[in-house]
Every structure is written in C-alpha cells, then in structure tokens.
C-alpha cells in the first residue's frame, strides 16, 4: 500500500511541476520575443541497497521552442525584429552576454540602448551609448545611424552596430531569467547573415490553445492522483478496522 501511495504522491508533485511550465508559457503569450518551453515526463528508477524495482514519475524541461513568433508592425524606429534565425546580444544582470529575440528597444536616461526590460544591448565593441539625437535609424545589419541633436538632416553619423548572432540551437539553453545563454558560457561571434527588420517587433511563439489544452489535461491527471491517494487512505482505514475486529 505504501508503494501505491508513493507513486500517486510523486505523480501529483511532478504533474504540478508540468503545470508550472505550461502556465508560465501561457502567462507570456503576449511577451515580446518570448520562447516557449517544452515539458515531458518519464519514469525514473529508485536506486537503493536492493534491486531498483520501484519507479517514479519525473517532469523535466528538455528543450525550448525556437520557432519564430508573429511579426507585429509598430512603425517605431527603435523597434526591430530578427528576420529568420538568429538572436540579439544583450548583457544579463551579471554583465554576461546573453541572447534574446525581444527587439523593443529604448534609450535610457544615461543614453544607453536597452531592451524593454532594461537590459543593455551589446554592440560590436561593448554596450551601446548614444548622444542626444534628433533622428535614429537601425539598418538590417544592426548598424545604428543618427542625426545629432540640432544637426542638419544630412549630418548622419554611424554610432555603433548591434551584435547579431546565429548559434546552433543545440549549443543554447534558456535560463530562469528568460534569456538564452550559451551552454559552455562562451560568447558567440557576430554573424553578418542575421538580418533585422526595423519598425517591427516579434511576438511570443506560444500557442495559447495548445497550452490551455495541456493545462486542462494536467489538471485531470492531478485530480486522478489525488483520488488515488484518497482511495489508498480508505483502503488503509478499512484494513485497520478489519484487524481491530479480528483482535
């Protein structure tokens, strides 16, 4: 009876973990550049002093979906979207290079080019800082040209270039900060084949209907595990009553 209880309990716990993954996907259905996480369950043997005859369910996040999201036209000069494969390089909270598809760029109070989350954009020579400008334009290769504040319309200066990379998806991992990182921790080189589209942002690649279906299915699984635990408890109580009467 304890074996059945253990299996039902572990199944319920892992089902809750799976629900967390899909709920997070659904919560980010409108997040710019968000990449959905996959979830899978598999059986794991319990190893101990004897033969591993028991197994338990384990939920894991094996990969991230890197397919493209919908292109949303904004007409804003600082909005850019990666066309096809590739990523925009940024610096995470620890100052390490990471990668994103979120191209809702801003200029903060210090004149630094950042994402909508406030993460610094990586240029070819480090963070990108801009002088006061009247006009800014980002070309398909990530080059940033500006008209300085108070300058003539033909006084165009190229300030920097956004670092764009195209690594193999097998060399990437998505971490808890929502950013894409290199598995070996090394920065990738700039790839001239990655192209940007100005005036657009890329939406999330989450399929809301698919995520809702998964969540409903997992809810039924969780209820089944709870019912099984109740049944085991009732069987245990019945066995105890039988023993009491026998005594």
TrEMBL record:
Pfam families reported for this sequence: Flg_bb_rod (PF00460), Flg_bbr_C (PF06429), LlgE_F_G_D1 (PF22692)
Flagellar hook protein FlgE/F/G-like D1 domain boundaries: 81-146
Originating species: Marinomonas transparens
Name of the protein in its database record: Flagellar basal-body rod protein FlgF
Biological-process GO terms, alphabetical: bacterial-type flagellum-dependent swarming motility
Subunit structure, as described in the record: The basal body constitutes a major portion of the flagellar organelle and consists of five rings (E,L,P,S, and M) mounted on a central rod. The rod consists of about 26 subunits of FlgG in the distal portion, and FlgB, FlgC and FlgF are thought to build up the proximal portion of the rod with about 6 subunits each.
Localization annotation: Bacterial flagellum basal body
Main subcellular localisation: other
Gene: flgF
PANTHER family: FLAGELLAR BASAL-BODY ROD PROTEIN FLGF (PTHR30435:SF18), FLAGELLAR PROTEIN (PTHR30435)
Flagellar basal-body/hook protein C-terminal domain mapped to chain residues: 198-241
Keyword Ribonucleoprotein carried by entry: no
A GO term from the CC aspect: bacterial-type flagellum basal body, rod
Family, per entry: Belongs to the flagella basal body rod proteins family.
Source superkingdom: Bacteria
Positions of the Flagellar basal body rod protein N-terminal domain: 5-35
